[in-house]
Design goal:
Length: 148
């Protein structure tokens, strides 16, 4: 675990991810070409996640021009709960899940033991910050000129 924590420290390049989207198509983190990427590990069973996602949707939709992409990695194990929540909340960004909960490769590669866990990455996928709260996330986005 300590070795993994060192690999996901601020300043390091984020480990590559390849996880299937809602249609079963694999999506690679490295293939995201936006200036910044907000990588969010979350679950529909997590009250903090459920309360955070609508605000992230507002921030994402309010970009002009669009400078960051969201890759939301669900650690749900129920495909129905996951896809229904995405439809209800209209979360129209990159949504992926391996349906293995905390035991999936991406959760293990990023030492995910609690949700939400958020990483702000630059174009080269270097980890710029790891905000814990919604306030910290908004501050990180502000610090990089992504919101006002």
């Amino acid at each position: 675990k300590l070795e993994t924590f060192q690999k996901i420290a601020v300043g390091k390049t984020a480990p590559e991810l390849e996880v299937n989207d809602t249609k079963g198509k694999p999506v690679r983190l490295a293939a995201i070409s936006s200036e910044f990427t907000l990588l969010i590990f979350w679950s529909t069973n997590c009250p903090h996640c459920v309360s955070m996602m609508p605000r992230v949707r507002e921030l994402y939709a309010g970009q002009s021009p669009k400078r960051f992409e969201v890759m939301a990695v669900s650690i749900d194990t129920s495909r129905t709960s996951w896809t229904n929540y995405l439809k209800e909340e209209k979360l129209n960004w990159i949504n992926v899940s391996d349906m293995k909960g905390y035991y999936g490769k991406s959760a293990e590669d990023y030492n995910i033991y609690a949700t939400p866990t958020v990483f702000l990455l630059d174009r080269e996928k270097k980890i710029l910050s790891k905000p814990i709260t919604l306030m910290e996330l908004e501050q990180a986005l502000r610090d990089h000129g992504l919101i006002r």
